[in-house]
Amino acid sequence: MAEMDTIGFIGIGKIGLPICAHLIKAGYRVLGYSRRAVTEFENSGGTPARSPEQIGAQANIVFACLPSDQALEEVMRGADGLICTAHPGQIVVELGSHPIRVKQRYIALLADKGAVFLDGEVSGTPGMVAERKGVIYLAGDQEAVNKIEPVIGAFADHMLYLGPFGAATKVKLINNLARPSSGFGHRGWPSGASRRNRDRRPPSHTIWRWPRNLPTRSAPQPRCSIA
């Protein structure tokens, strides 16, 4: 990591704020945007942005964690939205929970600008994220995931790469609804992961690649609970 590399973050709420704090502590310049006051973000060393458009112009890696489909649409395609300044090589990750069909709307729009859109989810409470105990689910272009892996490692000890776009959303939904017999353990870990690896806190983050035989179950899509 080059010192003070800029990372964009849109949606600085209950999940986003501790993620930003970890990134700032790791030495990144975090350019953040939220429709609400960002005083705590600024106090932690973050740089407020005027709009998603400004973030898109300055950051090659952008995370978002937005509470609704409408908020995601406004951030992406609004008059001062992220797509206005999307550029080749940029990687955008939505960590909020939305139906897959909603997230898929933005794949081609960003690809037209040379950017990559990844499906992301956070498994864990805000407190767990603050303690680096949350698990980050990612799906989509694997090369892009590999590029942002060091950045993920700045705010989470564990990350799961799950395969094609949409797989992160599916696994988060299953994990939220699953009973113990469904194949998922506590704290967002699949039960196939050994107890040693689930309970161990390594000095650096761990990346897991999920097997192909994912369980399936349909249910209404949960929302990301953020401020």
Write the layout of secondary structure elements.
Elements (H helix, E strand, L loop, with lengths): L5 E5 L5 H10 L3 E5 L5 H5 L3 E2 L3 H7 L2 E4 L4 H9 L13 E4 L5 H12 L4 E8 L2 H5 L4 E5 L2 H11 L5 E4 L5 H11 L17 H5 L6 E4 L18
Parallel strand pairs: 1-2, 1-4, 2-3, 4-5, 5-6, 7-8, 8-9
Antiparallel strand pairs: 6-7
Please provide a brief summary of the model.
This protein is an alpha/beta fold. The protein is built from nine helices and nine strands.
Provide a count of the helices.
9
Spatial gap, N to C terminus: 30 Å
- How many structural domains can be distinguished in the coordinates? 1
How would you state the average pLDDT, rounded?
83
Radius of gyration: 16 Å
The assigned CATH architecture is: 3-Layer(aba) Sandwich
Structural class call reads alpha/beta
Shape: globular
Return the CATH class.
Answer: Alpha Beta
Task: Give the strand content.
Answer: 15-25%
**Main beta sheet:** 9 strands, mixed
Q: What is the assigned CATH homologous superfamily? A: NAD(P)-binding Rossmann-like Domain
User: Which residue ranges are poorly predicted, with pLDDT under 50 across at least 5 consecutive positions?
Assistant: 181-187, 191-207, 209-227
Please state how the strands of the largest beta sheet are arranged side by side. Answer: 3-2-1-4-5-6-7-8-9
Number of strands: 9
H and E order: EHEHEHEHEHEHEHEHHE
- Helix content range of the residues, please? 25-40%
Can you tell me the CATH topology?
Rossmann fold
